[in-house]
């Protein structure tokens, strides 16, 4: 017979979130909608393309070494699974499905723990972790290893509480509980890291509240807290700090470099299941009459409104995540990387225009200039965007030393034809982020472009030449990546054909641009790099445009004017707009005309220069006032940049 207290407890836990047969319908609709939202709005491909650039690279290869390393470190198995799943973010549909599945595991695990505490129909609060996962990916962070560790912790706790040997009474159960708990705690630390502490807290709460064994609960918590120190320091030889930071968002581990808001969301996800268990446990201490009133309160109004109200509440949560947790600057940078990898240069520029001047850094400026060069607009539209000298080629010491620099510098060096520099920074990228496919493929292409017989300028025709053998070494590594097998196989087959250089226009083009001498430099500056490339091949148009852009950015107009004659080498029918502006500034400053070799300055450019000079002279001793007054009309010109060192603040032409 059910006691009044027991009946009231059942009604209490059914009250605010009273369940029905529509519960699974609501959850199904919600997770289906979350999958579509992740697929079409978040776009997992943006996250995949940012691996090894703006996000840590989740290294996973199909070889025994990878699995051996995973089992040789704490949380290695969970990190290995997360890295494997991360590779499939290259397919947006699968990436969205993986995130949705992770969110579902967290929600179902939380709900199982709540039900085991007696709140059998309080399922709606258990959907909060799904909103937390959406919030993390809305901010374009990817803590999949931490989320997988949390899911493992929840389900190990569920399995422990429902294990048949623990459900039966008697001496066997009493003797088996500590053994099973310690084994689960140790195994969980090896598999998933420091979440074993959370496991102990969950089990301790369950023991104290449901089984009325406070001493056992305290012992469980104490054992779980000691486990990372014993296993981490004695078995894995970690420091005490590292032992308590494995796949755990409360220490200096892999999540410590996250931004503050997503880091707090992730920490909230780890604490939420424990908080829910404490709420349910506390509700048992309320007076019976208060519990009865709570249970009888019509939380959803009419029963027919229950399903729509629950769906509306969850939808409101998703809308709040979408509106208030967007990271627009981070999203634009990810899009610029994605479109650069896809060689969609117009879309790179379109994305860059959504960044305010203050939102640009040297890396976004670098991608803008690269896109302008590929679209043939570097000399005309460069100063319609925010610019600084460091962002052009990223060779300056001002540029932060990290994965974005390694990727961008290796790519631009390859396109310009500086193979030694491309090779150097591709190896730097491998050393810093791991064996990412982009670096391996680039190194293989560099080896093929360098491939030539000793003392000859033509490529080797022998399929076993040194360059091809070196390329095969990198392609063997690339073949181990689950999502790059086809690309690696295609390149492998192409390497075996002696006509590769004739078929691959990219290698053929770079081989024609490269320098053929090896030199050692104490400092490698932009002008030294570009001038040496032009001396190796005067038809290197990209190197010429970058050299002229460097002289404009550094305001070295004497060197700029000295190289103007090269315009005729590339068949330019008219002088680019920013070149005209620089010519007018130099002629005005030196009081000497510039030799244009048959070309002329457009009248509108000359008139605009006169207007700028007249208005600039109106504020001879107030440069900040002049900058503000002239920004709207001249902020997209080289006149404005030369005068104030700022660009991209005027109207877009």
Account of the protein in words:
This protein has 653 residues and is an all-alpha fold. The protein is built from 35 helices and no strands. The chain folds into three domains: 321 residues, no CATH class; 123 residues; 91 residues, no CATH class.
Shape: elongated
User: Main β-sheet, in a few words?
Assistant: none
Helix coverage percent of residues? 55-70%
Unreliable stretches covering 5 or more consecutive residues: 7-20, 453-457
N-to-C span: 82 Å
Number of DSSP strand runs = 0
How much of the sequence lies in strands comes to under 5%
- Tally of helical segments: 35
How many domains in all?
A: 3
Coarse structural class:
mainly alpha
Radius of gyration: 32 Å
Mean pLDDT across all amino acids? 88
Quick structural gist:
The protein is mainly α and 653 residues long. It has helices at residues 4-14, 23-42, 44-50, 64-71, 76-87, 92-116, 128-138, 144-162, 164-167, 171-192, 195-209, 214-234, 240-243, 260-283, 288-296, 306-324, 328-341, 345-352, 362-374, 378-381, 390-393, 403-416, 419-433, 437-450, 466-479, 485-496, 500-503, 505-513, 526-536, 541-553, 557-562, 577-590, 603-616, 623-634, 638-644.
């Amino acid at each position: 017979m059910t006691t009044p207290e027991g009946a009231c407890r059942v009604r209490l836990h059914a009250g605010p979130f009273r369940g029905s047969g529509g519960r699974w319908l609501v959850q199904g609709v919600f997770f289906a909608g979350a999958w579509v939202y992740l697929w079409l709005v978040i776009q997992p491909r943006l996250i995949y393309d940012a691996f090894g650039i703006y996000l840590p690279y989740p290294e996973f290869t199909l070889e025994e070494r990878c699995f051996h390393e995973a089992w040789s470190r704490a949380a290695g198995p969970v990190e290995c699974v997360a890295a494997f799943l991360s590779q499939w973010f290259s397919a947006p549909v699968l990436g969205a499905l993986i995130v949705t599945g992770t969110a579902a595991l967290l929600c179902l695990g939380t709900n199982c723990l709540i039900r085991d505490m007696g709140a059998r129909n309080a399922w709606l609060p258990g959907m909060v972790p799904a909103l937390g996962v959406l919030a993390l990916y809305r901010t374009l962070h990817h803590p999949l290893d931490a989320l997988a560790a949390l899911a493992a912790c929840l389900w190990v706790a569920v399995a422990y509480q429902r294990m048949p040997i623990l459900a039966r009474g008697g001496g066997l159960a009493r003797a088996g509980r500590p053994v099973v708990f310690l084994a689960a705690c140790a195994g969980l630390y090896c598999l998933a890291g420091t979440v074993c502490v959370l496991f102990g807290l969950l089990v301790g709460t369950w023991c104290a509240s449901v089984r009325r064994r406070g001493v056992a609960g305290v012992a469980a918590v104490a054992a779980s807290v000691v486990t990372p120190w014993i296993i981490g320091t004695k078995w894995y030889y970690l420091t005490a700090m590292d032992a308590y930071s494995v796949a755990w968002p409360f220490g200096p581990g892999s999540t410590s470099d996250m931004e503050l808001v997503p880091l707090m969301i992730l920490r909230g996800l780890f604490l939420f299941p424990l908080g829910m268990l404490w709420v349910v446990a506390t509700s048992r201490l309320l007076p019976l009459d208060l519990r009865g009133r709570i249970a009888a309160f019509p939380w959803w109004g009419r029963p027919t409104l229950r399903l729509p109200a629950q769906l509306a509440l969850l939808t409101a949560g998703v809308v709040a995540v979408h509106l208030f947790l967007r990271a627009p600057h981070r999203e634009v940078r990810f899009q610029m990387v994605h479109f650069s990898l896809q060689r969609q240069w117009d879309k790179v520029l379109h994305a860059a225009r959504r960044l305010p001047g203050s939102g640009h850094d040297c890396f976004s400026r670098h991608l803008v200039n690269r896109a302008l060069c590929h679209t043939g607009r570097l000399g005309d539209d460069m100063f319609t965007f925010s610019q600084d000298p460091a962002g052009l080629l990223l060779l300056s010491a001002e540029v932060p030393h990290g994965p974005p620099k390694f990727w961008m510098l290796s790519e631009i060096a390859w396109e310009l034809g500086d193979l030694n520099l491309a090779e150097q920074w591709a190896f730097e990228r491998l050393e810093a982020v791991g064996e990412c496919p982009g670096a391996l493929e680039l190194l293989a292409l560099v080896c093929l472009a360098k491939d030539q017989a000793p003392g000859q300028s033509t490529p080797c025709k022998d399929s076993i030449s040194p360059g091809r053998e070196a390329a095969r070494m990198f392609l063997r590594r690339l073949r181990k990546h689950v999502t790059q097998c086809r690309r690696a196989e295609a390149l492998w087959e192409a390497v075996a054909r002696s006509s590769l250089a004739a078929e691959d226009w990219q290698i053929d083009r770079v081989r024609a641009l490269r320098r053929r001498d090896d030199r050692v430099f104490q400092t490698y500056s932009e002008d030294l790099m570009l001038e040496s490339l032009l001396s190796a091949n005067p038809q290197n148009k990209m190197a010429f445009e970058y050299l002229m852009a460097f002289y404009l950015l550094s305001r070295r107009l004497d060197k700029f004017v000295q190289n103007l004659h090269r315009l005729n080498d590339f068949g330019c029918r008219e002088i680019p707009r920013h070149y005209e502006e620089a010519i007018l500034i130099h002629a005005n400053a030196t009081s000497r005309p510039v030799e244009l070799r048959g070309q002329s300055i457009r009248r509108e450019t000359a008139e605009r220069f006169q207007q700028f000079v007249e208005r600039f002279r109106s504020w001879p001793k107030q440069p900040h006032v002049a900058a503000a007054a002239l920004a709207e009309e001249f902020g997209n010109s080289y006149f404005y940049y030369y005068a104030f060192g700022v660009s991209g603040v005027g109207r877009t032409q």
